[in-house]
Amino acid sequence: MKISARNALKGKVVDIAKGQIVAKVKVDVGGQFVTSLVSVEAIDDLDLKVGDEVSAIIKSTEVMLAK
Amino acid sequence: MSQGKVEAMLGLRREGRPMVGRDRIELLEAVGIHGSISKAAKAVGLSYKAAWDALNAVNNLLPRPAILGQTGGRQGGGAIVTDDGLALIASFRMMEKRLEKVAQMLAGDGSGDSFSLLWSLGMKTSARNAFRCTVTDIRKGEVNAEVVMRLSAESSLTAIITAESLSDLDITIGREVMALVKSSFVMLAPGAELPRISARNRIVGTISHREDGAVSAELTLDIGDGKSIVAVVTRDSAEEMELTLGSKAVAFFKSSHVILAVD
Fold it and tell me: For the Mop domain, which residue ranges apply (chain A) (predicted)?
């Protein structure tokens, strides 16, 4: 999949916590965790389950830096 | 707002001609009700001459007259309010309502909702993407609410806002809303195939404009129905994906990146 986002971190879904509208998905990216909030509808659409291989996509404009 | 309601007065004037305010609009309404200037004048407590002058001022405001009829007769003759006149009444009343709202906000304790205030005054926003949509579905959770809107014949938009905003803005199915999306929130994928990605908003279009900067590239996607989406991506991305004029691309953005506004 080619998309404009500069950052695509490959990882594995380790946890999905579903709310009514939004779900929290925890992704293990080489020992570090990336947390994603996506809609429950998206989880169902992608048939996302714990153990799935996913890419955590982050637009470069969305990345904050701290020193 | 308990002590002394603030009243704002609306006046319309064209090129220094006499002002048309609420009194004259009321007179115009009276002509509509009574069908004659003399009766309308009596109803609002004016002399025939004063009413005639007032209606002239109203007629001067518009490119075409607001009333038609035998306005010069001794009895005043019959008169009717034209479609333009009716439109003037309607827009005057609407503007008056809005002005009233603004006045009440200004009259508040100063901690009033400045966003709503600015919006009522015809706020402009920096968001490049502003779509007028009709709400087609709402799903409400404890904290968040998902709002689905029709963008065009083929495409829809999804926004996730807080449940509180949903009730504050009184967003209901069938209501018209403005969906705002910053161009930097929009990502692009080449081709017409929707990427398998969690982003709820995926819209296929054709690249109609591309402006390259040193680091960023601004691309406009024609999505049909006379609508377009602007995306700002890195120039590297635009080049790697060969996003050139005329090529197909999918614009996608998270539903949590959609801001809703109502007027």
Answer: 2-67
Predicted complex ipTM? 0.86
Query: Does the beta carbon of A19 lie under 8 angstroms from any beta carbon of chain B?
Result: yes
Assess if residue B245 is contained within a domain. yes
Residue A18: band (very low, low, confident or very high) from pLDDT cuts 50, 70, 90:
very high
* Location of structure tokens 């001022």: B57
Q: In Å, what is the CA distance from B44 to each residue of B25, B48, B82, B149?
A: 11, 11, 20, 47
Cα–Cα distance measured from residue B95 to residue B102, given in angstroms and rounded to the nearest whole number: 11
Number of compact structural domains in chain B:
3
Yes or no, beta carbons of A21 and B237 under 8 Å apart: no
Of A4, A21, A37, Cβ closest to residue B187: A4
Q: How many residues does chain B have?
A: 263
Reply yes or no on domain A7-57 having CATH 1.10.150.20: no
Measured in angstroms, the CA of A1 and the nearest CA of chain B are apart by 7
Of B146, B188, B240, the CB nearest to A39: B146
**Domain CATH for B197:** 2.40.50.100
Q: Kindly identify which residue of chain A lies nearest to residue B145, measuring between CA atoms.
A: A21
From the number of C-beta atoms within 10 Å of its C-beta (0-12, 13-18, 19+), residue B164 rates as exposed
Q: Where are the beta strands (DSSP E) in chain A?
A: 7-18, 22-29, 32-39, 53-58
